[in-house]
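Hi there. Long-time user, first ticket. I'm pasting a complex I've been working with (about 1162 residues overall). I'd like to know whether the download I got is complete or cut off, because the file seemed smaller than I expected. Thanks.
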Amino acid sequence: MRRSNLKAHLLRPQFAALAAVLFINWLLFPGFFAITWQDGRFFGSVIDVLNRGAPVAILAIGMTAVIATRGVDLSVGAVMAISGAVAAVMVSDGTPAVVAVAVALSAGLVCGLWNGVLVTYLDIQPIIATLVLMVAGRGLAQLVTEGSIVTFADPLLIYIGTGSLLGLPMPVVIAAVLMLLATLAVRRTALGLLIEAVGVNRSAARFAGISSRLLLLLVYTFAGFCAAISGLIVAGDIRGADANNAGLWMELDAILAVVIGGTSLLGGRFSIPMSVVGALIIQAMNTGILISGFSPQFNLVVKSAVIILILVLQSPMAAQWIARRTTAAERTPR
Amino acid sequence: MTAGDTPVVEARGIVKIFGQHRALDGVDFAVRAGEVHALLGENGAGKSTLIKILTGAYQPDGGEVLLNGAPVRFSDPLQAQGQGIGTVYQEVNLLPNRSVAENLFLGHQPTRFGIVQRKVIAAQARELLATYGLEIDVKAELGSYSVAVQQIVAIARAVELSGKVLVLDEPTASLDRNEVAKLFEVIGRLKARGLAIIFITHFLDQVFAVADRVTILRNGQLIGTRDLSALTATEVVRMMLGKDLAYDQRTLGVAESVQGPVRVEFRGIGRAGRVAPFTLSLHEGEVVGVAGLLGSGRTEMARLMFGVDASDGGEVTVGGRSVTIRNPQQAVAAGFGFCPEDRKLDGIFGELSVRENIIIALQAKLGWFRALNRDEQNEVAGRYAEDLDIRAANHDMPVKLLSGGNQQKVILARWLAIDPSFLILDEPTRGIDVGAHAEIVRTINRLREEGLALLVISSELDEVVAYSNRVVVMRDREMVAELRGEEITPAVIVSAIAENTGAKA
Amino acid sequence: MKIIKKLALVAGIGALLSTTAHAEGLTGKIIGFSQIGSESGWRAAETSVTKAEAEKLGIDLKFADAQQKQENQIKAIRGFIAQGVDAILVAPVVATGWEEVLTEAKEANIPVVLLDRGIEAPEDLYLTSVASDQVKEGRVAGEWLVGQVGDKECKVVELQGTVGSSPAINRKQGFEEGIAGAANVSIIRSQTGDFTRSKGKEVMEGFLKAEGGGAGICAVYAHNDDMAVGAIQAIKDAGLKPGTDILVVSIDAVPDIFAAMVAGEANATVELTPNMAGPAFAALDAYLNAGTVPEKFIITESKLYTPADDPQGEYDRRKGLGY
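Hi, the file is complete. Here it is re-exported in full:
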């Protein structure tokens, strides 16, 4: 039974979409799947997809839980900027990197908690509540950096962004570990079920004795934490905190990744690993466009066309159509 | 063939298949002008499917629909509406935050030069509703009126738009007795105007009160269409169930004798503007029925007991020990369970599985870190599903696919799973079919025998009488009477509800 | 530490200002400055240079930050008119919608100078506009590259600015003009890096993979220094030497590109000067004191910097400007 489950998972449209995008990339660039060993790490376009997809994947991990509660967090991009700015300014002022990282992550937690309080205790709609920090957060980050790109040479921060472990880029390792821990945390405890219950019907959750508020606080705080990690990675990658551009519009990619991963914006059923797959689909597409040699004017058109195709393929209508086709095929003799 | 005999709408040999399941299997159904035609059947018999085919929401897989003798094929409800078939559902699907007048004419407002003429609309709305015996402020928000008024507005709108056939899908489910009477008056007027009315309900007495003919379905098959004048209630029930009713409406009141110690006591619990402070204690092995009209404070009382709303003061003791109940979590921790009145809104998690719906309260009580694993979940869900005879193809299917009666049983199972000491049931039999109805009543009696303390709110006086050791009566947000033993008869309850209400007016 | 920062600021500005015309006669004048905001390091530098220059000339500068909103700028300009300032500087956030408020200024006889961006309005509504020539910036970069490679075959990858933005369009056009005469220099790949470091790095990574690990790439041309800084990191990650294996040429002359030059990792940058106020003040001086009407469009210099131009010194001079 477990085996057939696994097979069913692999047959999901998301994996087909990822495979298709990778295949197209290979057509565009025959060296796409080539991986070499260089300077103690793997090197190749596929590794680039994983590495560049990691920040959005990490955001999507946090975003999945939020969306499962029928919420959304628009502020994660701004929180990335805050976290990167805090860490960069602290290390350039001579604070030990470990402390700077801890403070930056705490800043993310506080930002998430703030969102959670607005959503649960003040009962503001999530899209509005997090819009506040989306706008104000970037300003806050700019205040921290005083409007300039704060560069640093701290080895720990740079390692977070560009180092490698077991030959894999650090961002990939972090994203993978986070995905694993988050998935275990929601599936080995009751959290996953309770989050889904709150997302499906918050009123019924209340009547069933579920502490919805605590859960909502938790998911928004976790989303803030994930954003902070992502912010550290992006800052470490360019060895500087760019408050104006770090994480800009990334919240939208993260939401898209979650949706492509099959979690409904109406809340309920969610899957963290599938959201990560969603992030990889987006990045594979981006990387494909980069190496395709198309003129950049086509970037957005190509991207949106592929996304529409993917969303159509996993729509209920398409699922019914495919189901009809398969049953018809089974019925047909010979 | 005379005009009166030609069916306005007719279905011939309708077949509808969902996956492997034949929801309708060669069903014939015909409604004449100027008749009220009841459509009866247990949940799952195929009533809704048939209605959805008649109103264009579904396409039949076989058979045909005829309108005034000519075959038609509706691609959607709007088209059916345009050709004369209007539908009013149990949950009024109008816009509660728009005015009554706007709701009546939404989508076809009288306009001049493209500008909506509010005054004209209001005047027309008043005129229209007057023909239904309804004189209300049509500029007020629809949501500010009772469900009954909203129901009549919905009917008026449907008749205005369609005018030949009116489908009433469980219109009385959330109405009290007076409101039902008012609705029947409206149905009578429409019948006199020559409309064909299809009436779907679970209440047999209402069928006999208002309908001329009845068509009965069972498991997707047509059992028969009869004149009601030639039928008895027992015959109808037998046709529906294929057997005699499991419990007799004449069941005598429960003896007061077997009462254990006090399980839970509410002293001075109340909330300004909702319910006046009340004191009530419940014993082990006791069912306390709550009677009263809609809006009398019945549900509000239950919400305070369960901590959904916080009480202004007072004290709650469980087994003699004082407990704080300011939210449902604390109530659950104290061993309380609550099956709310509005199943869809406050009860079920539609997208979640039957299994998850059953174990959710237990899981919430256990906390985040003591997760029930799949085997434990299956065990718990399986035990209570069997116990309550929940009919689901499997326990992994979404609960929203179950019938209303089975959904109610799922919620009941959810609370039984936490092994409660006190259970509140708010209208547990509302909107569910006769068979499930009887089962719920049986379950209430069984739980009492097992030593549970229960508070059951119900508008069905026969039912209240059948299972209550005591009955408290609510009126005007106050607990006004407590009836015991011999006093527990429908007549006494009705007079307790009605007492003084006349004097006030 | 703060003091050191301030000292550096004054020193840096002093150095920059020495090149501008020596203005006299603006002492005690009140000039309003409506700035767009502080969306980039360059913008912050422009603000600090303008403030410092005004201080040096004894101008009473009224500064208003519009936070990227035109309505704030219009409000600020009306405020300046009400205060009866002697002149107004505006760095317009958008090109349209200025007629009304500029007419009000004209009727109040207050000269208006536009900084670094043009507007779509009758020319008589403002005294002059001070801006750089973005096409020329690109051309200077292109001509430098042609001169640098000589007769050798050189395949260039281009990191464009944000698609559709005027600097991206103009700097691309200018560069193409600059290399037009040299058949041996050609652009083989061009993608947008959105003017940011991280996108610059990501796009360069893609280019390197697509061009056989970078073996076929002779130079990278970036529409701004930030993308170049990102590209330099990508080149290093790929095991190549930026500045040697792949030439790096970009535009803006922000401090970090000079730091890269010091390390031998960048080869050339074309300055977009943050000192738009210097020429503006000079024009105002001439206009207010002598009645000389300046040219309608004052173009700032697009100066080329290479490692030969004391990159360490340039870095130090610019570091404190708020880039």
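A couple of notes from our side: The mean pLDDT of chain C is 88. Chain C is about 45% helix and 20% strand.
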